[in-house]
Specification:
Radius of gyration of chain B: 13 Å
Strand content of chain A: over 45%
Oligomer: heterodimer
Structural class of chain A: mainly beta
Shape of chain B: globular
Order of helices and strands of chain B: EEEEEEEEEEEE
Strand content of chain B: over 45%
Largest sheet of chain B: 6 strands, mixed
């Protein structure tokens, strides 16, 4: 078990460019979550998948954001036409059912800086 | 809407002493879970302890324990025998009615040698 991995760890991009992040969950976990964390704040939920199905999306996930999880394995989060306000740490987490809760294990995050 | 409030932006403790971090929450769900996560500087978030709302007994994990007051919607974390490695941001989180976690803004804990 290698834990949740994310790639890249850091990304610097110019405003208006598109960026894509990847998350590889713990292998036996069927649930995958994306969160965004800005400086001085706690993580905010963006979206989550059960297998390949996207079950919930936050209103924070504007039309410029899209997430996929083909084949229910890794997931990608794409941001189109980046804005300076998109600068944040993007966290991925995965889980499987543990009793009646879903204990989430987090990856190291991708830090995005939009210049 | 569910909310989590951590009223202490920063706390400090002497090594080997005990510190308590506060958290209050609000939810209309009857079935929910509460968590404390630790985020060391430049490192990933890890789960410290969790509490099921239907359980009256407070959760404990080694030096970490919680004081869960359901009626008051309070969920504090006590760290005993503090160690230098406990220095981190601590986030209280709520999960109820949905699988998403709702986090507070965090408390930065400093451990002084």
């Amino acid at each position: 078990d290698t834990g949740v991995s994310q790639d890249p760890r850091h990304k610097i991009t110019k405003r208006g460019q598109n960026v894509t992040f990847r998350c590889d969950p713990i292998s036996e976990h069927n649930r995958l979550y994306w969160y965004r964390q800005t400086l001085g704040q706690g993580p905010e939920f963006l979206t989550y998948f059960q297998n390949e199905a996207q079950l919930e999306k936050s209103r924070l996930l504007s039309d410029r954001f899209s997430a996929e999880r083909p084949k229910g394995s890794f997931s990608t989060l794409e941001i189109q036409r980046t804005e300076q306000g998109d600068s944040a740490m993007y966290l991925c987490a995965s889980s499987s059912r543990d009793g009646s809760s879903y204990e989430q294990y987090f990856g190291p995050g991708t830090r995005l800086t939009v210049t | 809407a569910q909310t989590v409030t951590q009223s202490q932006p920063e706390m400090s403790v002497q090594e080997a002493e005990t510190v308590t971090l506060s958290c209050t929450y609000d939810t209309s769900e009857s079935d929910y879970y509460l968590f404390w996560y630790k985020q060391p500087p430049s490192r990933q978030m890890i789960l410290v302890i969790r509490q099921e709302a239907y359980k009256q007994q407070n959760a404990t994990e080694n030096r970490f324990s919680v004081n869960f007051q359901k009626a008051a919607k309070s969920f504090s974390l006590k760290i005993s025998d503090s160690q230098l490695g406990d220095a981190a941001m601590y986030f209280c989180a709520l999960q109820g009615g949905s699988e998403k976690l709702v986090f507070g803004k965090g408390t930065k804990l400093t451990v002084n040698p």
